[in-house]
């Protein structure tokens, strides 16, 4: 199977996975909470619990991908997602709801971006950067496609019917897409990663594991935790934050609509121009975007709402790629999946807490909460500045 076909298959399956899990509650939370007899904040808390489950699932899923490749793991997540969505459609109370989101949490931990990145690293080794960028370009439209589709399904079938429909899509579309991925040769040594791009003649010699600095790992984990916190918090609270800054409803809608295109445009830039740079350089540039955006919004107020959305979205778009390409460049492909799971564990935990904690800060500080997010963003920039690339990679 050619590399472009692998990228397209993974990109489409990732779009389905994100649209049917992470982005699902945004549109169904009201109907879902009524359907199971719980308050909406309680349902959001259950969703946060699912994100915690995804965090602890990630390292084990990554280790399995390191050893066996991503095909079987990603196919398994289609079954898990389908089962979780079916349980969600059947849920009548707290127990059913929690069971459903527990399964969906496992699916998110083993079936979203980090698993896809590990799959590509397992197949293509250090040459996986362009493929990683490619799947984020396609799956960057997950909310653009997923939210309207969920809204249409809910209108036509009700929220339970929408869950059944998403479950069917995993079995009818997601499972065949992931089944079409190349089989990776089993690794006899969990640290060795023989790449298999489709035939023995194209498989590459295993690349040795690079020395791992605990300081570098800690700095990267901090950066990814900050990015996860900020992006998740802003996804939940951007409309309210802009309204507090005095933006009109029309300006709030415009700013929100610019986030997706900004992310995709920045990823196109990464695919074209920035890929000539070390991922550390593009990561540093991207990490500067949110602090700059927050400063402009604080200084200029509502007139800077669109600029804030463009800068924040662009930075987040590139940083999503960086979380896959930078560990690959710093440490190499050996043991990539398990290491990626551990690196992203703090980020997934902060993402689970972000909507609630940022909401508390927003209620207490008002728009001054932007200085908090800007400060966190600057700390991520400093952390990236403190990291040095591998000698063989250059600067």
UniProtKB/TrEMBL annotation:
Q: What is the lineage of its organism?
A: Bacteria, Pseudomonadati, Pseudomonadota, Betaproteobacteria, Burkholderiales
Database matches in Gene3D superfamilies: MFS general substrate transporter like domains (1.20.1250.20)
Species source reads Roseateles paludis
Q: Does the keyword Transferase apply?
A: no
**Primary location group:** membrane
What is this protein's name? MFS transporter
Domain Major facilitator superfamily (MFS) profile: from-to ranges:
6-392
Q: Which ranges of the sequence are coiled-coil?
A: none
State the InterPro entries in the record. MFS, MFS_dom, MFS_Efflux_Transporters, MFS_trans_sf
Instruction: Report the domain of life of the source organism.
Output: Bacteria
Q: How does it sit in the membrane?
A: Multi-pass membrane protein
Residue spans crossing the bilayer: 43-61, 73-93, 99-120, 132-153, 159-177, 219-238, 250-269, 290-311, 369-387
Kindly state which keywords UniProt assigns to this record, in alphabetical order: Cell membrane, Membrane, Transmembrane, Transmembrane helix
Cellular localization per UniProt: Cell membrane
Q: Which PROSITE patterns match?
A: MFS (PS50850)
């Amino acid at each position: 199977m050619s590399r472009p076909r692998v990228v397209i298959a993974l990109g489409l399956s990732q779009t389905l996975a994100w649209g049917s899990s992470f982005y699902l509650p945004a549109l169904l939370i009201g109907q879902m909470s009524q359907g199971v007899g719980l308050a909406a904040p309680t349902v959001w808390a259950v969703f946060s619990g699912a994100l915690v489950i995804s965090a602890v699932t990630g390292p084990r899923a990554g280790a399995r991908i390191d050893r066996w490749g991503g095909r079987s793991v990603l196919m398994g997540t289609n079954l898990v997602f389908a089962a979780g969505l079916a349980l969600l459609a059947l849920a009548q109370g707290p127990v059913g709801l929690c069971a459903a989101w527990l399964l969906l949490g496992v699916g998110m931990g083993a079936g979203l971006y980090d698993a896809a990145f590990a799959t590509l690293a397992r197949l293509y080794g250090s040459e996986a950067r362009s493929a990683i960028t490619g799947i984020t370009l396609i799956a960057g439209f997950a909310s653009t496609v997923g939210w309207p589709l969920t809204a249409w399904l809910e209108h036509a079938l009700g929220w339970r019917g929408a869950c059944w429909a998403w479950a069917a899509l995993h079995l009818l579309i997601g499972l065949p897409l992931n089944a079409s991925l190349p089989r990776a040769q089993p690794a006899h040594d969990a640290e060795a990663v023989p790449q298999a791009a489709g035939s023995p003649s194209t498989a590459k010699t295993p690349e040795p594991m690079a020395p791992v600095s605990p300081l570098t790992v800690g700095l990267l984990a901090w950066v990814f935790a900050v990015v996860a916190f900020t992006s998740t918090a802003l996804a939940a609270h951007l409309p309210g934050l802009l309204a507090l800054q005095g933006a009109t409803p029309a300006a709030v809608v415009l700013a929100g609509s610019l986030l997706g295109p900004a992310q995709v445009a920045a990823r196109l830039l990464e695919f074209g121009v920035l890929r000539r740079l070390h991922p550390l350089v593009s990561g540093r540039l991207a990490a500067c975007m949110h602090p700059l955006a927050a400063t402009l919004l604080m200084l200029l107020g509502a007139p800077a709402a669109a600029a804030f959305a463009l800068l924040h979205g662009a930075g987040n778009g590139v940083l999503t790629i960086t979380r896959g390409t930078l560990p690959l460049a710093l440490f190499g492909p050996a043991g990539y999946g398990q290491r990626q799971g551990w690196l992203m564990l703090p980020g997934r935990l902060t993402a689970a807490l972000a909507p609630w904690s940022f909401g508390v800060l927003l209620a207490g500080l008002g728009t001054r909460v932007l200085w908090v997010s800007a400060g966190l963003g600057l700390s991520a920039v400093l952390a990236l500045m403190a990291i040095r690339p591998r000698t063989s990679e250059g600067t």
